[in-house]
Specification:
single chain, elongated, 4-stranded antiparallel beta sheet, 2 domains, alpha/beta, Rossmann fold
Length: 304
């Protein structure tokens, strides 16, 4: 069931069209990747979902009804442009933001203390925000985004500024929050994170929705019917007309890594059967599925 439904969203700023008839569903309990190059319209759509910006036409439904200001209380938003009050103490800042989202003082303090311990930052409570590094401040802002246990979390480039260890910490927390039932919109240029975390994605380019669907389904859709074959043999593998063509074959002391292009009518089973009939030992045989990074570049450059 869709938690968020965007119906025919259009948004203009003067003569500039930011979003042109965008329609998509974001299902409850999934991680949804919102992708696109800079200036594509992603942030505008996020702000419309958050009721920061109003569309010129179309509507956003939250749980099947038009989104209200009360629904915004059920949203946690981590914007790409980070911002904390630099002169405030970290604990006071976190308490203030948690209470803005409707938490009582006692509930906010208990939940924040738990999060601070989980992130290993319990000693920062009395520090001024201006004393924190960029990565340290982003930990605090991530916590203030999710501490009130929102139904919907919108994370815009959540890994920006983190070293690999802390980026992995945030990935783990995102997956844990999903497991607990949260719905998460992840806006990022990190395609590895998209493949690792996202169930479904939407790619927006030049204000238009280019593609939407499941990550695995999209990767298979843009596959080119190629197979990677690792085998051992004295002779290089030759192509078979009507079944496959050998695109490349690297030989390392008798261990070959070859890429085969399958004929449109050939099945993987037929190809593997033909290969096994030859005098060679097959170590692995796998479909080469394009990475999301390659698909992103292909779709964006085709639209250029």
């Amino acid at each position: 069931m869709a938690l968020i439904t965007c119906k025919d969203i259009c948004k203009r700023f003067g003569e500039k069209v930011a979003l042109d008839h965008i329609s998509l569903d974001i299902d409850q309990g999934q991680i949804f990747g919102l992708l696109g190059p800079n200036g594509a319209g992603k942030t505008t759509l996020i702000r419309i979902i958050n009721r920061i910006t109003i569309p010129n036409s179309g509507q956003v439904l939250f749980d099947g009804r038009p989104v209200t200001q009360e629904d915004v209380q059920r949203i946690g938003y981590l914007p790409e442009e980070r911002g904390l009050y630099r002169k405030m103490e970290v604990g006071d800042q976190a308490m203030y933001l948690a209470q803005l989202k409707g938490m009582s003082r006692s509930d906010a303090q208990a939940a924040l203390k738990e999060w601070f311990v989980r992130f290993g930052i319990q000693d920062w409570w009395k520090k001024k925000v201006e004393e924190l590094s960029k990565g340290m401040a982003q930990k605090v802002q991530f916590i203030t985004t999710v501490v009130h246990r929102p139904s919907l979390m919108i994370l815009d480039e959540p890994f920006s500024g983190f070293d690999p260890v802390n980026a992995e910490l945030i990935r783990g927390e995102i997956l844990r929050l999903k497991k607990e039932g949260a719905t998460i919109i992840l806006s990022t240029h990190n395609m590895e994170s998209v493949e690792e975390l996202c169930d479904n994605i939407a790619l927006i380019n030049k204000s238009h929705l280019v593609i939407t669907g499941g990550v695995d389904e999209i990767r298979h859709r843009y596959g080119n019917n190629n197979i990677e074959l690792v085998y051992t043999g004295e002779q290089a593998l030759a192509g078979v007309e009507g079944l496959y063509e050998v695109i490349s074959d690297e030989n390392n002391a008798g261990r070959h890594t070859a890429v085969l292009s399958l004929a449109e009518t050939a099945s993987s089973r037929e190809v593997l059967s033909a290969i096994l009939s030859k005098e060679l030992s097959v170590n692995s045989f796998r479909e080469l599925i394009p990475r999301m990074n390659d698909i992103f570049i292909k779709l964006v450059t085709e639209e250029a």
